[in-house]
Amino acid sequence: MTKTPWRPVATAYRRALVSQANPRMLLLTVIPFVLSVLLWAILLAYGFQPLLDYVQALFQDHDWFKTTSATLGTFGMSAVKTMIVPLIAMLLLLPLMIATSLIFMGVAAMPPITRHVAARHYSTLEAKNEGSFMAGLAINISTSLLFVVVWIATLPLYIVPPVAVLVQVVLWGALTTRVMVYDALEDYASADEMKEIRRRHRAQLTFIGIVSGFIGALPGIVWLGGAVISFVLFPFLAAISIWLYVLIFVFTALWFQYYCMQALADLRAARKTAPDGAAAPVDAGTLPPA
């Protein structure tokens, strides 16, 4: 019986949820969280007030207070105008917070995640070891920098918040897909296999990234919303948001890891049965028992 190519997405999601509850996986959030909090404690202590002053000066020099006040009034958001400068500052910081959490997570947590998934379900899968730590780090940093630039460029869309959130969910999806597919396969897949998996499973991988993007939007909403209610809570909400980002990244990494490892196993099985060793069509619904 032909099975839907979307079944492995659901299976990988279920396995990721189960693995996320594993104490070892929860402990993986500690090092990225501590590193991120230490970094951001220093940055906020020495850099947040200068950033506020800079944004305040920009608004005064270009008479943006009047423009934003009128715009917010049009959308029934006049109450927000008193918080516009700190909100803009936090929106500028948010992509940097996401990017640093992702980089620390990739360095500290991704290798144990790969070993965990491989040991539980793919112990017989051959590791090609064609990837490298430095190549993975370069992809993490370059993609994160592009993500930050595009995020900041789309900030004017916050005039219509639902549109802005939707755009940034798509950005999050693109970020996690590019970074985590490489991280998931760097030890096991050859360059040819990785390229083939990206081509064959583009729709499913993009779906996983975008769903993760919706989940990943929640910490930012908590941070920004809580700060609007009480700016005193800003540092505490920042720490909570960082931990949530790391937790979400670990789950997302597990989801990508399970899906990509199964896709690699299916690809190799198909090539073994193909008469000339070429990549034959793969029944993506063929899965080992959970």
TrEMBL record:
The keyword Membrane applies. The chain crosses the membrane at residues 25-48, 84-110, 131-153, 159-185, 205-226, 232-256. Keywords: Membrane, Transmembrane, Transmembrane helix. It is found in: Membrane. It is a multi-pass membrane protein. This is EI24 domain-containing protein. The lineage of its organism: Bacteria, Pseudomonadati, Pseudomonadota, Betaproteobacteria, Burkholderiales.
